[in-house]
């Protein structure tokens, strides 16, 4: 495996080419797993972007935030308002949602980064809950409260009308210069954004700025004693991370033009923490793996029911099939959280570095076995030459 911290520019180029190929061919290689439909593929991309941004903060600096759902929700609201006021084109919506989340992150970061550790986490959680309650009840003229912000045919859409794009009898849908953002088109829009933001994250990991962030995580006090003011680095990272979350929220609105306060609940913030830890905090690919695993469990495992399990084990005697289906039913369908909890528990206990640690161990075993075989073959060849 390529260590992104030590890789050369040529290796980074190969890394990006392989990553781009894997992302763009997901509808093909996910087909056997039943996860190749557009809605789930879009979720993989959106929550992957959210996890990448969160990992820049938590994985590199060690600052645990429980308030990233606020930036996710603000990005969604801003994107829908862009569709209502400006244009159904996705580019202004993405820019507007990302910028608004970044501005809110400046305010939150200015207050919260005065503290560290558990106090920082609690402050971010408090801001997220305030944002949720404001969106749900106080700011209803802007957020439409519990109903959620939606599009309507009466929306002004100033830019669209300036360019002669008139409203039709049906409700409009976001598009990229006429290409709808629904279905697989929506996935490829999200995939293109994913590749761009992953490249930015890669450059941050490889830069001196990223090295300073890792130094903060290692020992912030010692770094301060060397003369570095850590506050600007933390503030910059917090804002970038918030903008990633706002970008993910914008893409949610791009693929489904609706914004609701539920996206800002503390459970959404906790979900991205699980994604990052499950995949491997501080790694490039780990948060993507974590996001993919959780969304796969949420959408695939939750869809299994007793009838499907009975069909799967129909080759068994009826009494045995019923027993197996009843037992497995505890872990799928409504019980998918139990399966996820067990997986998360096993990862934390045996692989503290997440899924990436497990993959790295497997890779080391493969390399060790290969070197051992090479050494044995050379020893045999040398013995044969001496004979």
Helix count?
17
Tell me the major beta sheet.
2 strands, antiparallel
| Rg, alpha carbons | 24 Å
Number of domains: 2
Mean pLDDT: 89
Cross-sheet strand order for the largest sheet: 1-4
Strand content bin:
under 5%
N-to-C SSE string, H for helix and E for strand? HHHHHHHEHEEHHHEHHHHHH
Q: Helix/strand-derived class?
A: mainly alpha
Separation of the first and last Cα atoms = 39 Å
Helix content: over 70%
Q: Which quaternary structure do these chains form?
A: single chain
How would you describe what is shown here?
The protein has 387 residues and is mostly helical. The protein folds into two domains: 9-278, no CATH class; 304-376, no CATH class. It has helices spanning 9-24, 26-29, 38-61, 68-85, 90-112, 117-138, 140-143, 158-162, 183-206, 208-225, 230-255, 266-279, 286-299, 306-312, 318-328, 336-350, 355-386, and strands at 149-150, 175-176, 179-180, 258-259. A hairpin with a 2-residue loop joins strand 2 (175-176) and strand 3 (179-180). The chain is globular, with a radius of gyration of 24 Å. The two termini are 39 Å apart. The relative contact order is 0.15. The model has no long low-confidence stretch (mean pLDDT 89).
